[in-house]
Design goal:
Elements: E1 7-10, E2 26-29, E3 32-33, H1 39-42, E4 70-71, E5 99-100, H2 107-110, H3 116-126, E6 135-138, H4 142-153, E7 159-163, H5 166-175, E8 179-182, H6 187-196, E9 203-208, H7 218-226, H8 234-242, E10 243-251, H9 264-270, E11 273-276, H10 281-293, E12 305-308, H11 312-320, E13 329-332
Parallel strand pairs: 6-7, 6-9, 7-8, 9-10, 10-11, 12-13
Antiparallel strand pairs: 1-2, 2-5, 3-4
Helix pairs in contact: 3-4, 3-10, 6-8
Length: 335
């Protein structure tokens, strides 16, 4: 299977049903595969499209069955569509997904409109920012950095970003104004630091941009084995502690399994609003493209490595192993 759900390119052929695009157009492609006509697409929820994932779709949202709509390059459970880490890619429902790129913009200026910028922006939008709020972002990877940029677009007050790696926190300070917190000794210290920065209440909005694969110690790993769990919800749990009473937690990191001991009592006592899921990229992409076109946000400053497609294995390796200061890799299939 071809991986990659964050891609753009030049149109080489169009199907007979495609009316708004033609050969030679340069386009960005949102990462969900969505029809644009079903109930969920009509409600701006393309990640829940009823037609793009017919083999595994369903209302339950199970671990291995009844999944949501399809995603490019993201396993058979989500449609089995080949992704964009290739010289060519087939794009279904092309009248609904791809957007033409203005001539004055470079590829790297708009590439992240296909996934991580809409995803980061989703977390902030779910936070219902009106201006002046405190926002704590867990994870200074690509999505976390885009959430950081998005928080400033929505006039956040104090923005706090948390990570276990100092080089990623350094990158965060380079790309936007923020307070950084190093997750070193554990969640309790991080939560305490966030409360100290927010008059003891906790952040108005916490964003989980990590998901089920955080850095873990041996105890965390043993606990997961005993509970038959995949990964750990420790970052989500930290968000629920760090958010203020009546605050909002946005979950952008992926959680593919169920977890015991979920803090539902804390959720109830604090009156937390919890939102999560695949980002509705189609909903935001036009607004965000205008932000880029108008020069209100810069996206390509998070890129740390530019590689040819033939070097893809090296790109995956340095990102996974957190080597060479790797934050974001861009692949060129023709270099």
């Amino acid at each position: 299977m071809v991986l990659g759900h964050e891609f753009m390119g030049i149109i080489e052929e169009v199907g007979k049903g495609v009316k708004n695009l033609q050969r030679g157009d340069r386009v960005i492609v949102p990462f969900p595969v969505a029809c644009g006509q079903c109930f969920f697409c009509d409600h701006h929820l393309p990640g829940h499209c009823e037609n793009s994932n017919p083999e595994h779709y369903g209302p339950e949202g199970g671990i291995l069955t009844e999944k949501g709509g399809a995603l490019f390059g993201y396993t058979d459970l989500y449609g089995g569509y080949d992704g964009g880490q290739a010289q060519y890619v087939r794009v279904p429902y092309a009248d609904y997904g791809p957007r033409k790129v203005p001539e004055q913009l470079t590829d790297e200026q708009v590439l992240f409109l296909t996934d991580i910028f809409p995803t980061g922006y989703t977390g902030v939008d779910w936070g219902e920012l009106k201006g002046g709020e405190s926002v704590a972002i867990f994870g200074a990877g690509p999505v976390g950095l885009m959430a950081l940029k998005s928080a400033h677009l929505r006039n956040a007050g104090k923005v706090i970003i948390i990570d276990t790696l100092e080089y990623r926190l350094t990158k965060a300070k380079e790309v936007a104004d923020c307070v950084t917190v190093h997750w070193d000794d554990g969640a309790k210290d991080v939560v305490a630091a966030i409360r100290d920065l927010t008059e003891g209440r906790g952040a108005d909005v916490c964003i989980d941009a990590v998901g089920f694969e955080p850095d873990r110690n041996m105890w965390d790993r043993a606990k997961a084995v005993i509970n038959l769990e995949k990964g750990s919800p420790k970052v989500l749990e930290a968000c629920m502690s760090a958010v203020r009473r009546g605050g909002i937690v946005s979950v952008l990191g992926v959680y593919p399994a169920h977890y015991d001991n979920f803090p539902v009592g804390q959720f109830f006592d604090k009156g937390i609003i919890l939102k999560g899921g695949q980002a509705p990229a189609h909903k935001y992409i036009d607004t965000l493209l205008k932000y880029v076109t108008d020069g209100k946000v810069k996206l390509d400053d998070i890129i740390t490595h530019r590689l040819s497609l033939s070097q893809v294995e090296h790109g995956y390796e340095i990102f996974k192993q957190k080597e060479d200061g790797c934050v974001k890799v861009v692949l060129d299939p023709w270099s």
